Amino acid sequence: MNQQAPVIPQQETVRVRETFGIDSDLRVPKFTETSEHVPSIDPAYRFNPDVTLAILAGFTHNSRVMIQGLHGTGKSTHIEQVAARLNWPLMRVNLDGHISRLDLVGKDIVVIRDGAPATLFQEGVVPWAMVQPMALVFDEYDAGRPDVMFVIQRLLERDGGFTLPDQNRVIRPHPHFRLFATANTVGLGNLNGLYHGVQRLNHAQLDRWNIVAALDYLPVADEVDIVAARVPDLAQKPSGMELIHSMVQVANLTRDGFAAGDISTLMSPRTVITWAENISIFRDPELAFRLSFINKCDEAERFIISEYYQRAMATELDESYALVPAGA
């Protein structure tokens, strides 16, 4: 079966400096029209310059790009927000333990035609995405099952065809098909015990990724601005910005403590935003902190976290918040 000639959408060129606020003279392609699969623009998003340029290399030059970083750093969101500003359709696939080879490639299904059962091949997400101007993002890439990873390996060959053995068909990628991945590790496995279920990846496959970018947490000022934009009710209150700044300081102390091995749970920017939202609900920073973060932590570590809270918030955390076992 011959594959139809791909439809090439119209493009224009935009400046990286104007579109992403990054000090660069580069120009990148942007589709002139949007579609239902284009992510929504988040005007409050802050772009990491190095990671943004890496992602743009993927879109512009068809490089295979992997983004690595701790949870909550915004790896997938970063790719989405770049795609949103380029009007580039995007599809995310989470490679959890339930995703199988059949989900990616396709499978036979039984349908009723003319009152009788018939077998029909239903394409998986990979052949569906490949023939479109589409960015396919594999989230939790290092948690993928071995049979799934070998399916992906063929995709990592630039401009390589994808074979559907059951259909005797080779699918050629659309000229604007792009491939990205996000991972908590770089294929080294669960060395520190944080990410159960991740695998040691085949180095032959890792070598096929053209660019691997590392994404860390945001600078304090940028994180404060994002939290304020997400929870404007809190930011607009008297001393609201000072409170948010202190909350981000608490988060950074947990990250430093995590890096030093003092605690095993850290606050991501997502957790800080949740904390701010819960302050707006409960009108109590301490209660919101307990419900948003401390109840997730090991009992033996709560005393350390209460010290972080005292240092950043200039007030002691109620002992009942720091010491009550989770779920009590």
Automatic annotation (TrEMBL):
EC number(s) recorded for this UniProt protein: 6.6.1.2
Gene Ontology, cellular component aspect: preribosome, large subunit precursor
InterPro entries: ATPase_dyneun-rel_AAA, CobS_N_dom, P-loop_NTPase
GO BP annotation list: ribosomal large subunit assembly
Enzyme class of the recorded protein, top EC level: ligase
GO molecular function, one term: cobaltochelatase activity
Record keywords: ATP-binding, Ligase, Nucleotide-binding
Entry keyword Kinase: no
Domain (Cobaltochelatase subunit CobS N-terminal) ranges: 12-38
Source superkingdom: Bacteria
Pfam families in the cross-refs: AAA_5 (PF07728), CobS_N (PF12556)
Domain ATPase dynein-related AAA: from-to ranges: 65-192
PANTHER family: MIDASIN, MIDASIN-RELATED
Protein name: Aerobic cobaltochelatase subunit CobS
Organism: Paeniglutamicibacter gangotriensis Lz1y
Gene transcribed to yield this protein: cobS
